[in-house]
């Protein structure tokens, strides 16, 4: 990716005209092929100075634009409004190393208007302190017009010196201390200087600055977290890290994104909740189709039917092809400044006490990457898993049958939106299966069934390749029709075959989910039969669990052992899901006695980390909080909350939907007065113990008097929904983790026990 930054200075009084001219041309820029972004920033210290920022998919797209009409139109519009610019006013960078020796770091942060004076007082002191840091050269403070978003755009002599500084947690107090409260939720991007096509030379650091030292390492690029594999698991990991301002790099060996519906198509309810937090749930609903229920037929007779539209679910079961899932996550990731590097394959890696050194084979040659952590999300044939020496517990299981998939139009009289399973049994043994999953489009379905015998014959009687097979011929429409004739209702016809494939089901789970600084997630860690669409959704849950812990580790505030909890919490869940999926693969239903509970379990709505060492409680009475979510359980959403100054009721997820832990303190009229009096002190202690990584709210029953202090913020449980769902009375607290699970609870408020629980998560929480 290429970024350009053009510094311009408006003529006196022409500042509004510059902004107007930019708005006119910016729309045209967005339509130029290869353009990824465009912004106009203002210098925070010079009201007449602006910086025009553009980003491009690659160098050729940028150069083509430079010669094109839109670039000419921008120059023509700005020339009469600005002072003449020189060659030094143009900066060209890329997000991978170039020939230049300097790097540029763009830190985006939010400064609320009411705290701007505080920021403006502290910032000059920070720049003065930074001037004494080895390798630091200079910086600009830029602001997005009409917003609270600022950019600290800093130039450093090289990567080694920058990362040596940033990885020392003490720097936040030593150099950035005066503005440290504004640096808790940031986005950081790193760029390398490159040639400008009109300069005829490689830009070097200003000759008046210190001479550049020789390279201290042969590492080509450096990042906090290297993620291998840009499927749903890898993309989710990257989104969650980027949302927290963690520098990450995502590489994918496939040169182009998938364009076929060849993988998962079912999105579970819990995944939809995650997507709501990530900001893509609306786009997913717009692109998908609701799966409203299922029906099972055995030997032509309906054995049961169930509606999946349960009123207690926040979302129903969505049908969405995996390539659409990857598109939505990729687009969301791009808004956070990260894009997958395609055509880059992991070759090898080594790790030491401080990080991981990985070798990549890219389209332009071999590249070395130094990262603090590596996450392998590279699928069923994971290179990361292989290099770590992980093995499948009990061996990798493979079904003896070959299966085929096809996307077709089906002409029949069946309820819309239902997943349909047709099975044939002889003497109580299943010998035929047809699964039909609705897709977006009229009468369109994904068909899965046993492959015709000729496909197995093509393998010479040996094992067929696991996964989706490219070695075998594609099934035809006649193959699909033959399976339908045998198993579907009489007269069913299929047409318009868009895509088909043959595949083999493998299943298993690795013995370990990681080793020191390297982790595996998704299909790299566990393989499932496709029953229930478990693979993709479980991988997303892996990433959801791991990313927030990695972010704390990168920031240096994670307690020892926090990253070990990833395996402790996720491997038992993966083991249970693999076993359940294998058992369900060739049965008409696993548990007919409680279909609703089974469905909720499939949707991950009953997922709990109750056995995790990270979770706990302190209860004064055995029946306290009995009706609320237990430690490790998913924290349910509730409505009816009221906050002063907000004209509409809030949801609990409006409070806990950020990227940090959330502490919910509750009190009603019977709460101890001393507890309410100590809320402010408790709030300050928690923030101090956790380096500001916990948001705190005081939830009050309508009959409880509101305390005078506004810290923590007060929210009224106006409808009593929180009280009912969480079983609270008197005084109580719930600590909700960033993944939406209960980390700790107590009734009444137990500050000492809470502090001990925080020690399990945060370094320095004492």
TrEMBL record:
Q: Where is this region: Disordered?
A: 195-219, 621-641
Q: Which cofactor does it need?
A: FAD
Q: Could you say which residues form the signal peptide?
A: none
Keywords attached to this Swiss-Prot or TrEMBL record, sorted alphabetically, are:
FAD, Flavoprotein
Q: Does the keyword field hold Flavoprotein? A: yes
Q: Which InterPro entries did the record assign?
A: ABM_dom, Dimeric_a/b-barrel, FAD-bd, FAD/NAD-bd_sf, RIFMO-like
* Protein name stated in the entry: FAD-dependent oxidoreductase
| Domain ABM residue range list | 2-93, 103-191
Protein's organism: Micromonospora sp. CCTCC AA 2012012
Which GO molecular function annotation, any one, does this entry have?
FAD binding
Q: Which Pfam families match?
A: ABM, FAD_binding_3
Xref: Gene3D superfamilies: 3.30.70.100, 3.30.70.2450, 3.40.30.120, FAD/NAD(P)-binding domain
Q: Which PANTHER family match?
A: BINDING MONOOXYGENASE, PUTATIVE (JCVI)-RELATED (PTHR43004:SF19), TRK SYSTEM POTASSIUM UPTAKE PROTEIN (PTHR43004)
PROSITE patterns according to UniProt:
ABM (PS51725)
């Amino acid at each position: 990716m290429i970024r350009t930054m053009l510094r311009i200075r408006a003529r006196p009084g022409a500042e509004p005209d510059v902004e107007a001219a930019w708005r006119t041309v910016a729309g045209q820029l967005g339509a130029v092929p290869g353009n990824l972004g465009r912004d106009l920033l203002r210098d925070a210290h010079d009201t007449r100075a602006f910086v025009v920022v553009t980003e491009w998919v690659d160098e050729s797209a940028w150069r083509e634009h430079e010669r094109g009409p839109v670039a000419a139109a921008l120059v023509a519009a700005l020339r009469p409004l600005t002072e003449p610019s020189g060659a030094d006013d143009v900066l060209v960078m890329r997000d991978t190393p170039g020939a230049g020796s300097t790097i540029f770091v763009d830190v985006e942060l939010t400064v609320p208007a009411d705290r701007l004076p505080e920021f403006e007082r502290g910032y000059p002191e920070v720049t003065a302190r930074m001037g004494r840091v080895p390798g630091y050269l200079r910086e600009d403070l830029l602001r997005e017009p009409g917003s609270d978003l600022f950019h600290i755009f800093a130039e450093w002599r090289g990567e080694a010196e920058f990362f040596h500084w940033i990885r020392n947690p003490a720097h936040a107090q030593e150099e950035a201390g005066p503005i440290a409260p504004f640096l808790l939720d940031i986005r950081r991007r790193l760029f390398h200087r490159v040639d400008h096509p009109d300069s005829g030379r490689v830009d070097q650091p200003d000759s008046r600055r210190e001479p550049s030292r020789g390279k201290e390492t042969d590492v080509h690029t450096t990042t906090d977290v290297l993620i291998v594999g840009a499927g749903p698991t890898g993309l989710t990991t990257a989104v969650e890290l980027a949302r927290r301002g963690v520098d990450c790099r995502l590489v994918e060996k496939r040169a182009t994104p998938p364009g076929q519906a060849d993988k998962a198509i079912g999105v579970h309810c819990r995944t939809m909740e995650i997507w709501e937090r990530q900001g893509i749930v609306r786009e997913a609903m717009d692109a998908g189709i609701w799966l409203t229920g299922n029906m099972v037929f055995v030997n032509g007779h309906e054995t049961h039917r169930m509606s999946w539209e349960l009123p207690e679910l926040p979302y129903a079961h969505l049908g969405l092809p995996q390539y659409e899932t990857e598109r939505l996550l990729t687009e969301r990731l791009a808004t956070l400044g990260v894009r997958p590097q395609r055509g880059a394959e992991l070759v090898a890696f080594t790790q030491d006490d401080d990080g991981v050194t990985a070798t990549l084979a890219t389209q332009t040659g071999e590249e070395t990457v130094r990262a603090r952590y590596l996450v392998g999300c590279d699928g069923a044939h994971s290179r990361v898993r292989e290099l770590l020496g992980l093995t499948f517990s009990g061996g990798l299981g493979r079904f003896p049958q070959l299966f085929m998939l096809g996307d077709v139009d089906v002409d029949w009289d069946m309820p819309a939106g239902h997943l349909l399973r047709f099975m044939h049994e002889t003497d109580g043994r299943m010998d035929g299966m047809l699964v039909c999953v609705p897709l977006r489009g009229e009468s369109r379905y994904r068909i899965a069934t046993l492959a015709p015998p000729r496909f197995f014959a093509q393998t010479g009687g040996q094992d067929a390749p696991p996964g989706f097979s490219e070695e075998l011929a594609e099934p035809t429409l006649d193959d699909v029709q033959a399976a339908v004739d045998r198993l579907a209702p009489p007269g069913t016809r299929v047409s318009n075959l868009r895509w088909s494939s043959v595949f083999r089901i493998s299943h298993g789970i690795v013995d370990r989910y990681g080793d020191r600084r390297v982790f595996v997630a998704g299909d790299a860690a566990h393989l499932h039969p496709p029953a229930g669409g478990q693979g993709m959704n479980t991988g997303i849950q892996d990433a959801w669990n791991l990313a927030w812990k990695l972010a704390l580790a990168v920031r240096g505030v994670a307690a020892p052992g926090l990253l070990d909890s990833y395996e402790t919490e996720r491997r038992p869940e993966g083991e249970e899901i693999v076993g359940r999926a294998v058992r369900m693969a060739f049965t008409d239903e696993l548990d007919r006695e409680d279909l609703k509970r089974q469905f909720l379990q499939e949707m991950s709505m009953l997922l709990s980390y109750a056995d995790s060492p990270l979770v706990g409680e302190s209860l004064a009475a055995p029946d306290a909080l009995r009706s609320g979510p237990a430690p490790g359980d998913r924290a349910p959403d509730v409505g009816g909350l009221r906050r002063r100054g907000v004209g509409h009721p809030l949801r609990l997820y409006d409070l806990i939907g950020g990227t940090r832990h959330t502490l919910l303190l509750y009190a009603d009229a019977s709460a101890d007065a001393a507890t309410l009096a100590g809320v402010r002190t408790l709030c300050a202690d928690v923030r101090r113990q956790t380096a500001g990584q916990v948001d705190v709210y005081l939830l009050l029953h309508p009959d409880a008097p509101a305390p005078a202090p506004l810290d923590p913020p007060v929210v009224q449980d106006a409808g009593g929904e929180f009280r009912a769902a969480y079983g609270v009375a008197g005084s109580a607290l719930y600590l909700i983790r960033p993944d939406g699970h209960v980390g700790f609870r107590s009734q009444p408020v137990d500050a000492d026990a809470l502090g001990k629980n925080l020690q399990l998560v945060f370094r320095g929480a004492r």
